[in-house]
Amino acid sequence: MHPLTIYLFHLIHSKKSNLCVSADITTVPSMLSLADACGPHMVVFKTHADILSGWDPTPVTGTGAKLAALARKHRFLIFEDRKFADIGSTAQLQYEGGDYRILEWAHIVNAHVISGPDMIRGLKEMGQGWVKKHDDLKGMNARGEGKVGEPPEERGLLLLSQMSSAGNLLDEAYTKKTVSIARTHRDFVMGFIALEPMNSEPEDDFVVMTPGCSLPPDQSLDDSEFVPGAEDPLGQQYVTPRDLILRGCDVIIVGRGICNSKISGAKAEQYKKVAWEAYEERLRQ
Ligand code: 5IU
């Protein structure tokens, strides 16, 4: 199993949480406070670095480093929802370079396989290069190997095999092809963004993380103008956390249902509880 998948399941069980909070917000301070508020309740924090204003690219003290410090403090994995889709060589530059330097702080990234399997090879080269560089530096690093329980310095990829938006073009044949491509890169591909489990062969141990998840409005808690329903005005389609977990998804991804709330920590706790109860129910089945 991919080392990040092992760590993820360790977190799921120790934090009793199958929740990924998606930071669909547009300033760096609000993104960092969301990570801090939801940290105790989530196992993955999903970012969109390119929607944030105020990104500080400074190595060691900049935004990526601050986020990584929160991931160590609360123990969660950082997932940059970058959706790479270009040719391998360009995807490598997008992963490593620019102001965001995603490779340095995101444990997980994702990609469309629309440009073919060599793009995965390109990203894998960078991810594995990063892990090796980190291993080589470890001996000299004052922080040593990190405290027990902190996220490991590994890098992994999720492929988009299904999407939650209405009318998307990822049909059954595309989904199947994506899974078969993933099988050829098991050492880097952790699993999928999908709406249902993708494992069908005995050796498959892919994880599935699922967006398009919301709870019906809760009178006692809801304070946000965005009250998720069955869909949003731009084609997002929602399923409840319970339904997603009972159908076999490993991690639910929740954006505006949590990040648009003034009490995002309490909302994250509410989502975590509902999903965890469903997970325990599934394990009993
Ligand atoms: N997201 C989806 N659907 C997908 C994929 C990604 O919603 O198929 I791939 C992202 C978009 C947004 C988050 O960042 O997940 C969902 O946000 P809401 O819970 O606010 O709809």
Automatic annotation (TrEMBL):
Top-level taxonomic group: Eukaryota
Quick one: which pathway?
Pyrimidine metabolism; UMP biosynthesis via de novo pathway; UMP from orotate: step 2/2
- Tell me if NAD is a UniProt keyword of this record: no
User: Which Pfam family, any one of them, does this sequence belong to?
Assistant: OMPdecase
Q: What is its EC number?
A: 4.1.1.23
Q: Which UniProt keywords apply?
A: Decarboxylase, Lyase, Pyrimidine biosynthesis
Q: Which GO MF terms does the UniProt record name?
A: orotidine-5'-phosphate decarboxylase activity
Q: Where is the signal peptide?
A: none
Which GO biological-process labels does this protein carry?
'de novo' pyrimidine nucleobase biosynthetic process; 'de novo' UMP biosynthetic process
Q: Which residues does UniProt mark as catalytic?
A: D81, K83, D86
Residue ranges spanning the membrane: these are: none
**Which InterPro entries does the entry link to?**
Aldolase_TIM, OMPdecase, OMPdecase_AS, OMPdeCOase_dom, RibuloseP-bd_barrel
Q: Where is the Orotidine 5'-phosphate decarboxylase domain?
A: 18-271
Q: Which residues are recorded as binding substrate?
A: D24, K46, S164, Q236, G255, R256
- Cellular compartments per GO CC: cytosol
Lyase: is it a keyword of this entry?
yes
Regarding protein family, the annotation reads:
Belongs to the OMP decarboxylase family.
Name-wise, this protein is Orotidine 5'-phosphate decarboxylase
Native organism is Phialocephala subalpina
